[in-house]
Amino acid sequence: MSVSGVIARQFDRATLIAFACVVVLLLIGAMVEPAFLSPKYLIQQLHTASFLGVVASGVMLVILLGHIDLSIPWTIGVGGMMATGATGFLGPEWGVTLAVPFGVLCGALIGTVNGLGVAYLRAPAMIFTLGMNAVAQGLMVYHTGGFAPQDRATEFMRELAVGHFIPGIPNPLLIWIILGAAIVFMLNRSVLGRRIYAVGNQERSVFLSGIDTRKVILACFIFSGSCAALTGVLLAGWANRSYQAMGDPYLLPTIAAIILGGTNVLGGRGKYVGTIAGVILITILQSMLSVVQPQRYFAQLGVDIPADTFRQVVFGVVIIGMLLIYGRQQLVR
Amino acid sequence: MNVSSEPADMVSRQKYFGWVGRLSAAQRGVLIAMLIFATMFIVYGWKQAAGLSPNMINTAANKGALLALVAMAQTLPVITRGLDLSVGATFVLANCLASTIVVGGPIETTFGIFGVLLLGLACGAVNGVIIVYGRLQPLIATLATSAVYFGIALAIRPQPGGLVNFELADFMTRSTFAVPHTVLLLLAVVVFIWIPYRRSVLGRAAFAIGSSEQAAYMSGIPINRAKMLAYTLSGLLASIGGILLTALTYSGAAKMSIANEYTLNSIGAVVIGGTSLFGGVGSAVGSIFGAFVMRTVGDLLIVFDINPVLQPLFVGVVLLVAVSLGSLRVLRIKNRLDIYR
């Protein structure tokens, strides 16, 4: 197959709609504020988007399997808090050097428990990961309550989140690009990628083909946990500190981005390019809301409505609206 | 309604377990939840220095009843093999609205209560329409609507506060002959909502859909209407919980953490109460006891002098254990192929 064919195959209808929405939003924004189309603003948006992009990369694989990972809010928290608090576990020297791998490893551990529960115990993923989220929350609350741990980001974490290894490209964006390229290659050109799509379509058939589907599921959950924890590490570096509810605002946008990108919630179908489009769309939407500030107009009318209301309502409505356009289930009877 | 057990299995069960063996899966679930709750509550009362005073029972009942109502709300969609992640948000939204309109004289209060209940019905109906006619996944649809409902709650009550009719609040927190009024409320909900629903055509249809939607469709069961009713009633039950919360706290607060906590705990309560997450088996009565079990876990931590910050950890562990116990069927499956969908 030609290279152009391979590239064209990555863009399905949902991806094109999502990218079109991004362009329309930017044009509307540019009419209000010309700075919307400046390279500086766009790079800044991509910088913000890369945090969401990293966590969405992991969750997307889990959704492709037909499962879901609802434990990401506190896995992000675990990643950030364990990385900043690594000195308490590994000592002052190793704790600084190994802060990032330690944080990611803790996320991978949560992913492992999720994977074991879903793949080997056959527990429903949405309930099991929801329970794991509570467990991670409990552990972190205990951790901060008991030991008053270090919550400052290390120099390296700070550099990782705000520095520029390649001039012009912020480091998180670079990480997202590398991670994304690896996932695109993995999904399209590797045995594991084929198996992920196959399990998402019909696990039974894959099992009958002599493949241990449980290992595929376990691997994806571990990857999802690691990605969420990596996001936590980056966010801790970005804010220069870690705090308890740092992952809470990420659950809905992550799932929304993946689904807006055309990934089927029941698994088996979806392209990574779509997820990229969804992540950028969600980020621009968030940014637009904070620039336009609809609460000001309501305040002029004498109605006091908090800004968070608009974020929540717009998110909910956009997700449902987009899904009604292209995410409806077939009537299979 | 699951027909997985063969007749031979039934006979041996009756032989070894007597009348317990004759119970349906849902009834056994309720019984187990009841026993766990009774054991935990006896241990709690025994460890408590002051013993079990009516006052203490009242406090425990009030806390448990809130979760019990939300858990009952969660039970109905779960029976149809769905899920409602917006019960917590509906509960918080009803709380915020009730703290605004359930005030003033008896007439205003009555209208206010009806208004909140209507809002609950509307929230549930919106979920139902999106899931049934929009054909979206319950998980994603209710996750999205929960954001919308929470946003509206925040608009109604940006800062915690508000008022509630004092007589109503006073009545709900008291008890008659050591029977807390919240327990009477739960009883009323079971008698006037759950039992008629369970016995109605659409209620039975919900169980059939949960067992096998395809078979239910082939049998001409009104699938769409049954699902609509399940989600709508779920919203109603959650809003009753919201009104009770307003009466118990004298205020309304739009807090994401409350919504999330109640949604999570409601799923735990449903599982402990013997309702199958795979649909088709379950009872709202079991969920009530499941809710009381979840709440007593917290109280037990306090009397056993365990750090209260560990409570979310224990709730999570209880949920994981409950879900994993349900997965023990994996060990009994003889043909490994049946494990996979």
UniProtKB/TrEMBL annotation, chain A:
CDD domains: TM_PBP1_transp_AraH_like. Its main location: membrane. GO terms for cellular component: plasma membrane. It is a multi-pass membrane protein. The chain crosses the membrane at residues 16-37, 49-74, 94-113, 125-145, 165-187, 216-238, 250-267, 272-289, 309-327. It comes from the Bacteria. InterPro entries: ABC_transp_permease. The keyword Nucleotide-binding does not apply. This is Monosaccharide ABC transporter membrane protein, CUT2 family.
